[in-house]
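Appendix B, example 12.
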Amino acid sequence: MKAGFAAVFVLAAAPALAQQDFSKVEVKAEKVAEGVYMLTGAGGNIGLSVGRSGTYVIDDQYAPLTDKILAAIRVITPDPVRFVVNTHWHGDHTGGNENMGKAGALLVAHENVRKRMSTEQFMAAFGRKTPPSPEGALPVVTFTDAVTFHWNGDEIRVYHVPPAHTDGDAIVHFAKADVVHMGDTFFNGGYPFVDTSSGGRVDGVIGAAERVLAGIGEKTRIIPGHGPVATKADLQVYRDVLRTMRDRIAKLKAEGKTREQAIAAKPTADHDAKWGAGFMKGDTFTGLVYDSLP
């Protein structure tokens, strides 16, 4: 788990991507439901749907991994990738876009994903600038609220949620397969990264979890942006922890505590051993939540 969460933010520092040895990354596939898989490598979890209509992918990690990702897909199906849906704009989820587009895939995302990828972005949490993506990496189909794919015998509902991890988050629900891909609105087993520079808000992360919980059953499988495949119970625990942390930090802010004073109060301390064991530590998470609160 720790290694997986550390790999999340190769994008956190400008030179880090160039320094990572992608030759050592192994892309693995895990069957989640009939015709639906999760692929892991470095970066965000990839969703995969295969069947009579063709290959449908959710997120595509980093550009140097495209060949390995496509090779892992070919083990499952010989069909080329027809669609790539991005759950948000971060490079560990969209880095392979240009390669996938050149290979014939149609790139789809919320309109804010294209807007952010089209211009230079600054991620204050890491003091890092991200240059505009090349034209070929930009989504060519965008939506505002929702779009549905009638694909591989399923009804794949892709819908936008209010600002959560970023302002362009999309959740993908495979209605028949009973699988949901939540992108980075769900970090299974760790505190989430709330990218306030991209419009992210902790209340939105909690709201995204609540919306998914309201629309799934006990047997639904959930692919998080990072971490292992989850159950409804796992998502409920995550939601409850976030509510508790949000309420504690909001109380400190309402009392007039500065950001530094709120962090010094250690409001997450009793949860840090589990939830702060990965990439996002308790102090950093506290600061981001504080920043995202009104």
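The two ends are 32 Å apart (CA to CA). DSSP finds eleven helices and 14 strands in the chain.
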